[in-house]
Amino acid sequence: MRRMRLPSAALLLSLALAPAALALTAANAHAEARYETAGRIVSISNDRRVVHIAHERIPGVMGAMTMSFTARPGASLAGFAVGARVRFAFTVTDDGQRLLDRLEALP
Questions:
Q1: Which residue among 10, 21, 66, 92 has the highest number of C-beta atoms inside a 10 angstrom radius?
Q2: Does 106 have pLDDT greater than 80?
Q3: Residue 74, helix vs strand vs coil
């Protein structure tokens, strides 16, 4: 009789944990994504918090295009000008915001 209880207990435990496993899977499906690429600065907002960059293709993710990025507090736009070639990293949040994590000048 004990042998029958062990598989039953394991089955009940699996069923009890299934909703938590599904919730973790759903949360990971909406996790933030981080990318790195290079491009050219098209414009910078007057308050220097938003930069528009014409970036290269990100293989397997998106083609080349111009996008806007909001600088995170640690990512400074100081010293950058329109036309500058840059390498940068950005995060797309689960609500679609594009946050600039790092920006560096290219020669």
A1: 92
A2: yes
A3: coil
